[in-house]
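ok so I'm stuck.
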Amino acid sequence: METVLVVDDEPTIREVVVRYLRRDGFQTLEASDGERARELVETGKPSLVVLDVMLPGTDGLSLCRWIRSRSSLPVILLTARGDEVDRIVGLELGADDYVTKPFSPREVVARVRAVLRRSTTPPTGHHRTVAVGDLQIDGHRREVRRKGAPVRLTRKEFDLLFLLASNVGRAFSRSELLEDVWDFAWDGDTATVTVHVRRLREKIEDDPSHPRHLVTVWGVGYRFDP
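replied:
not stuck anymore, here's the structure
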């Protein structure tokens, strides 16, 4: 049985999220601040963390950075409505997804399931190796090399790159990428895709501001050119 760590300083929110997670078959751990959350990440071995950005002491973004520096443990951020900066920074730090407050607890559970499914079950075809341009993408080992040197990617960055590079020349809309890589329908906010594309360009392009491989198709989305 998978365990979800819920980190929020508001007892009511923790109680509701925990109740719905348990109804859906998850075990849960709870923390009201960043320091306690660190302890539970190390001792409780959760499968995923639901993490509020606004925490006393160590804030959620700092905790997300700490988690990502140590492991690929999936993280879903809870952010205030309209707080786009926190969402974008969180995604840049390696968060897997986010949910804005106020939210439906059912939506949180659905996002937890989707992120866990993506993190444990590689998409179809990920067992093969793709070689395009100066990139070697090993789907089985989930490793990327550029000009022979290893490139460190987060789980979502890898999935996004693998999908695009496996379909050279095909233009994907942002909504298609959200559905294929993040497993949820477009709700009007494409910040998740935009941030991950920017991060990928910084890692695989000679000049990220003038990308040669990961190009924008205006009015549509993105495609990979060899």
